[in-house]
Hints:
There is one protein chain. With 297 residues, the protein is an alpha+beta fold. The protein has two domains: 1-85, Ubiquitin-like (UB roll); 116-255, Cathepsin B, Chain A (Alpha-Beta Complex), CATH 3.90.70. It has helices at 25-36, 124-138, 145-148, 152-159, 168-178, 240-255, 278-289, and strands at residues 3-9, 12-18, 43-47, 52-53, 72-77, 106-109, 112-117, 181-186, 192-195, 202-208, 213-219, 235-236, 266-269, 275-277, 294-296. The strands form three sheets. Strands 6, 7, 8, 9, 10, 11 and 12 form a seven-stranded mixed β-sheet that branches. It has a five-stranded mixed β-sheet with strand order 2-1-5-3-4. It has a three-stranded antiparallel β-sheet with strand order 14-13-15, covered by helices on one side. α2 runs antiparallel to α4 and α2 (124-138) crosses α5 (168-178). The longest helix has 16 residues, at 240-255. It is globular. One of its GO terms (molecular function) is cysteine-type deubiquitinase activity. Keywords: Cytoplasm, Hydrolase, Metal-binding, Protease, Thiol protease, Ubl conjugation pathway, Zinc, Zinc-finger. InterPro entries: OTU1_Ubl, OTU_dom, Papain-like_cys_pep_sf, Znf-C2H2_OTU1-like_C.
Amino acid sequence: MSLKFKITSEAGTHEIQLNKPGPSWEDLLNVISDKLGVSPNMLQVKAGFPPKLLSASDSTLLSELDIRNNDRLHIIIASNSNNNTSSVSTASNSSNTKPAVETSKYIRINSGYVIRRDIPDDNSCLFRALGVVDKILQDPENYNEAILGRPVKEYCDLILKENTWGGAIELKALSDVYQTEICSIDIQTLRADRFGEGLYPQKVYVLYSGIHYDAVALSPDISFISNQEIDLTIFNKNDTEIHEGVLKLGQVYQKDRAFTDMANFTLKCEVCKLGLKGQKEAQLHAMNSGHSSFSEY
């Protein structure tokens, strides 16, 4: 029997099918590679809810992994990938001696090029979580049980777990920790959520896909767009040009459907097998039952 998956990446949402009997991890990566036009070694695959990074040897059978037929797979393409996905503007290799440029989506504005920088899911998330915990514990008036939805200590213990997602509460806390407004652009709706609005003179931007946050940066020159060391990521709060540029970048990814519809996708609790719809039902079920393993179906 063939296996079908829905894959979501910065290139949009696609369906893939593996017809080979007993397909392996290598087979899956090759099919995804063919669909997205990138090298298999540039791919990272996540599955489940919340999505967790999968890792396996090439010969590992998919039947041995925690993925099932018709699952949604979330694909991360390494930032130095030379894929050829369509975009509003496409950086290409220069004919002069300047450094080679990665192919990537970007928006040109007067001061440079607005671009998304992928943020990996790694242990650095723990350090960000520690900053949030410190802020919550130091500010019981604004971060109380009514706001957090559970006792303060229980909440702090929860977000320190590596499989716990961050959201609005954590972004507000991080805004306070770093004394910087955080503007989150939702790719699906292009809604701009501002945390710390009007409180600080500087602002940073993130793009939210429904399951993951990525940073937004301004590269000063197209020839160095692959060099993140010269990125500008902190902006004046009154800079309307960068704000419009980030919104236009969000539109590019929205057009490619590079988001997960958190309100309407269907989930199943792997502990009690209860069917659920959307993130809110999953979060409520997790809060009431303590279950934290979900899969899409």
